[in-house]
Design goal:
The two termini are about 35 Å apart. β2, α2 and β3 form a beta-alpha-beta unit. An eight-stranded parallel barrel has the order 1-2-3-4-5-6-7-11, surrounded by five helices. Strands 17-16-22-13-14-21-18-19 form an eight-stranded antiparallel beta sheet. A two-stranded antiparallel ribbon has the order 8-9. It folds into two domains: about 270 residues, Copper homeostasis (CutC) domain (TIM Barrel), CATH 3.20.20.380; about 80 residues, Translation factors (Elongation Factor Tu (Ef-tu), domain 3). It is globular and about 65 Å long. By secondary structure, the protein is an alpha/beta fold. α9 runs antiparallel to α10.
Length: about 400
Amino acid sequence: MKPELLAPAGDFEKLKWAFLYGADAVYIGGPSFGLRANASNFSLDDIKVATKYAHEIGKKVYVTVNIVLHDKEVELLIDYLKKLEKYNVDAIIVSDPTVVFLACDNTKLNIHLSTQQSTLNYEAVSYWKNHNVTRIVLGREVSKEEIIKIREKVDIELECFIHGAMCAAYSGRCVLSNFFTGRDANRGGCAQICRWDFDLLDESKNKIEAEKPFSLCTKDLSMLKYIPELIDLGITSFKIEGRMRSIYYIATVVSVYRRAINSFLENSLEYVYDKKDEQILYACANRESIAQFFDGTNDETCQYYNGREEFSNQDFLGIVLSYDKETHLALVEERNYFKVGDEVEIFGPGIDTKTIILEKIYDEFDMEINIVRHPKQLVKIYIEETVYANDLIRKKII
């Protein structure tokens, strides 16, 4: 069975990039009732247009309705759900049981149970199947053995997170943000308190001096090594976290997993794990990533207890806007500083990754220049091999 590759899309531009680089479906947030209050999100009109666009190219759109409801919102929600049904979205992603029941009673929407429900066992999966849920987004804390048992016991679509940030608590159940900042994590306002640095006190409330401050921060999730196992387990959908991430992040992560999935499905007997892809994913996020709970390793190696270092990612250099086959010049919109002599990589949905040394750069007036350092500056660079619009340029990944 070919699994679905499901990508985040914080806005319409990111939706297009996700599809272009290989996603089969995207999940998006609407104007309300979702858990990414700080993302750009989609208006109702945007959802209508996005869904139509996706269906025209054979893709799917799921809308998050995973907020924890209060009484005052129930009537507003019913109208909202009916509009999503009218716009023909492929499913809603839900965490609150009330939303499940309201959707069943008032619409014919497909319902995917959010990871916020922390579903980790086959009895819970069976319960939700009996209440008209069509897919379970398993809790990030689920192990391989638990997935096997769920798959054996219940015939239902299963979705697993394969890449992205992790929650320090059961997914979405943390209230640290509420207490520290007044921003409700379960209503879309998480301030990511688990990534803050803290003083660590002993039993007498004396500060423990250490080289680095104490942190609750978890390492990221990456299931790249386990793609063959997940496919063999019969997982329906592989989910990437990150609706607030950049187009570069989305294109990079989606393309890496698309390549791994396709490679294994095309010839599972000769499939070889590509360590270069692992390096690409690490460079894209600049945080360590591990398999977390899947392989049963739940110890201090899963978290940054003693602080961490994160550097602003400046690997993304530019977007190819067009290519002239006669002059071999690519028109590029700059994203980060680069110069003549730099070794860079060019990747895209229709090409193998190319590594080149920048020999010639011209500005938009065809004057030869040595350095590109102005945000979104338009320049032309010499590339011997053909590249295409929407290919991306990054620093060479060692």
